[in-house]
Amino acid sequence: MVLNVTELGAGVANCPGHFCGRMVQSIVDSVTRGAVFGGNVVTELANGSVNVYDGEYEYTLSECGACPRGTRASGPICLSCDTTWPAYFIIFNSLLLVAYLAIQNSSYENQLVRSPWLAIYTVVDALVSILVALWCVGPKESARDLFKIPFCGIEAIKDWYPYFHNPRPDHFHRIDCASEVAFPAVTLPLLFLAFQALTCLCLRLPLLRILHTTAGPLHRPTIDKLRVGTLHTMQWLVLTAVVFVSCGGVLYYTYPYYFLVLGVIMCFSNQSAMDGHHKKPLAWFASALLLFPGMITIWLFFELEAIHLIWVFLMTFYPHSLTFVASRYTTNTRLRQPFQES
Q: What's the whole-number mean pLDDT along residues 55-69?
């Protein structure tokens, strides 16, 4: 039997609010009731649930409430999500991972601890946490399904904050429909941070404690610095989780523009810090790389046509080419010459 949710929802009133829906609780073969002409027969029960009879089967729908994770309200019914991850969403999560690794690395560098083995351990630990988080969120039938996590889509910034959109039909009693609408945009990063905190508490700190007791007096100061760096990492984990929960939706829609602003600022800062006789084209090219992800993510977000990629490449190097050409006539030494001659 194939459940046609579009036909099933015909005749059933929509739930109040943006994210409330009904779940299909049971399906009973009720051919003895006879054929139905002109649509479904909808019966509302006293507990708020609804019976729908389409002439062949009788469906029992739950009362209006929050849709479970992995489902989203479409009309009166909670539908299972089957959308693939868009490139814009993948880039967003990748940048969050890079930012976290950079913050964690700075926690150890502030203690003057630099080691390639420490960097390798940090990357491996992050990859293991990602795999465990994917395994917890995704289907567990087989290892191939690890990366087949459904995506419920993000239609507006309110999808990140469903708690603020719980309806009050009578202006007094609130229907709690707050659930993770943008699944798994919130659960996946928070699970990653949780597993990182777990490895810090249960693996790093006990291991450093054992190393501190067994190491010689020459290595103990370095181990103490690693312990302090790990404790600083714990503080950053808590702060990152709080910022993500409160500002994740804002970051999702605005992070491409951060690259644009940062790239332009670096472009003009390189220009102002360089002397006219010591031009460094590689510095301009490096700062141009910051503009490219911003332009490409804007192109992905607005789902523009492929022809607009030409403007992506042109606008990436436009401010840098302009400053590179104008640097010949706007250097500090050139501007001071007329005043020195007079």
A: 80
Residue 156 has pLDDT above 60, yes or no: yes
**22-26, 154-158, 314-318: the lowest-pLDDT one:** 314-318
Distance of CA 329 to the CA centre of its chain: 44
Nearest one of 234, 129, 138, 131 to 192, comparing CA atoms: 129
Residue 36: what pLDDT? 47
**Tokens of residue 234, six digits:** 């714990």
Report the pLDDT averaged over residues 151-174. 86
Q: What CA–CA distance (Å, rounded) separates 78 from 12? A: 13
pLDDT tens digits for range 322-338: 766 766 666 555 555 55
Residues near 326 by beta carbon (within 8 Å), at least 6 away in sequence: none
Tell me phi and psi for residue 114, to 5 degrees: -130, 120
- Name the average pLDDT for the chain: 76
Q: Which residues fall within 8 angstroms of residue 49, CB to CB, at 6 or more apart?
A: 22, 25, 60, 61, 62, 63
Note every long-range contact of 198-205, with CB atoms under 8 Å and residues 24 or more positions apart, other chains counting: 199/125, 199/128, 199/129, 200/230, 200/233, 200/234, 200/237, 201/234, 204/230, 205/230
User: What tokens does 214 get?
Assistant: 């067994």
pLDDT of 204 > 70? The answer is: yes
